[in-house]
User: What shape does this take?
Amino acid sequence: MCVKCGQNTDDYHVLQCARSGTKTHRHNAVARTIAEVMVGHGIAAEVEKSHLLPDCLRRPADIFCSSWQRGLPFAYDIAVTHPQQASMLTKSSRTQGA
Assistant: This one.
């Protein structure tokens, strides 16, 4: 039994539990790693940049590049998924490559 959410656990539960914080930790680690690689290649990249939208404190981009191709800004959103999550099991069991 998961002490964070109360659900029965299996080998994959820790990878998808919404209350354990591991999903957020993995997401942030992936975003930081990608940004570090970009910076290492001379691309100005910022993680979780705020004030991208007028009058908004939200951070709509996981990685923001102020000058991408032709000097235009670009925003990346990172999604980390798990193939064993309940919402994907039926589809992945029926669809090759899903």
Remarks:
- The first strand starts at residue 45 and ends at 47.
- DSSP finds three helices and three strands in the chain.
- Residues 4 and 20 are 6 Å apart (CA to CA).
- The chain has a mean pLDDT of 80.
